[in-house]
């Protein structure tokens, strides 16, 4: 008899939006699934492209939804984006942050000076998801990039699942600036493999299962990291999307819900 999928791996790396929650609400069955992993002693972490909140805030939100989590389990794209920028921009440089206060705090902690507008002649722009961003914010980013500032993005997700449906993500806002500048940013976050590898190292995993709802970020990134991947059908992409996707974006498994992690029968794609 085939083992349950979770028993074929030494841990699980979850995406968040569309997998464990959508906006302020838990995905049905997600708290129970994570609780089962905890009861079984299976290590698990949370890998998210959402750069608007700190690891502490994410862990607190998960706990409020009945999903026990600690900040150490949360790997996000905001620190990855700042680290990418720090590799190329010297400490002390001026940076325009088009994103959240959390992202700005990370930029300052890394030794950069944050500035409020393109009029301050920033050396770089870093852009991350923040629901309150508006046209004026994107315009300032475009002015700075057109004036020669280096441009970085925490991630390039075009959409994000919310409680009311699918909404524009950071990639869509990045695209608006790209149209105005004719340029593209250097990006951290998924689908780059870095965060998955960092999460596996943090948790001491060698053969984790990556579970996500997006083929172009979660599944592609997990595949690039050399890990097994599972698409769960509670978010952006469908089973039909997976079947017709490029090979690099095809998951090893398709899950109807997270309950399928514990079933002996599960649908394989590769």
Question: What does this protein look like?
Answer:
The structure is a single chain. The protein has 2 domains: 124 residues, 3-Layer(aba) Sandwich (Rossmann fold); 110 residues, Rossmann fold (3-Layer(aba) Sandwich). Helices cover 33% and strands 21% of the residues. Strands 5-4-1-13-14-15-16 form a 7-stranded mixed β-sheet, with helices on both faces. Strands 7-6-8-9-12 form a 5-stranded parallel β-sheet, with helices on both faces. A two-stranded antiparallel ribbon has the order 2-3. α5 packs across α6. Pfam families: Hydrolase_6, Hydrolase_like. This is Haloacid dehalogenase.
Number of domains: 2
**Fourth-tier CATH superfamily name of the largest domain:** HAD superfamily/HAD-like
Top-tier CATH class of the largest domain: Alpha Beta
Query: Which descriptor suits the 3D outline?
Result: elongated
**Mean pLDDT value:** 93
Q: CA-to-CA gap between the ends?
A: 19 Å
CATH topology of the largest domain: Rossmann fold
Structural class, by secondary structure, is alpha/beta
Spans where pLDDT lies below 50 across 5 or more residues: none
How is the main sheet built? 7 strands, mixed
């Amino acid at each position: 008899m085939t083992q349950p999928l979770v028993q074929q791996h030494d841990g699980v790396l979850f995406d968040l939006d569309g997998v464990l929650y959508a906006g302020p609400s838990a995905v049905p069955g997600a708290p129970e699934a994570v609780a089962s992993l905890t009861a079984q002693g299976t290590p698990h972490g949370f890998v998210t492209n959402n750069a608007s909140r700190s690891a502490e805030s994410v862990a607190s939100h998960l706990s409020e939804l009945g999903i026990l989590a600690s900040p150490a389990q949360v790997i996000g794209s905001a620190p990855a984006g700042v680290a990418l920028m720090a590799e190329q921009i010297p400490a002390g440089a001026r940076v325009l942050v088009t994103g959240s206060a959390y992202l700005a705090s990370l930029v300052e902690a890394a030794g950069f000076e944050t500035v409020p507008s393109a009029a301050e002649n920033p050396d770089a722009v870093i852009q991350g998801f923040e629901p309150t961003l508006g046209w004026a914010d994107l315009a300032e980013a475009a002015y700075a990039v057109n004036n020669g500032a280096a441009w970085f993005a925490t991630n390039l997700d075009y959409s994000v699942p919310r409680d009311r449906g699918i909404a524009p993500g950071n990639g869509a806002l990045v695209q608006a600036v790209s149209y105005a500048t004719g340029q593209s940013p250097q990006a951290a976050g998924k689908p780059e493999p870095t965060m998955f590898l960092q999460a596996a190292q943090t948790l001491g995993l060698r053969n984790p299962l990556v579970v996500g709802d997006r083929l172009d970020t979660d599944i592609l990134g997990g595949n690039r990291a050399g890990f097994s991947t599972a698409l769960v059908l509670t978010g952006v992409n469908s089973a039909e999307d997976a079947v017709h996707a490029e090979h690099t974006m095809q998951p090893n498994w398709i899950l109807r819900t997270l309950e399928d992690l514990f079933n002996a029968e599960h649908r394989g794609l590769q």
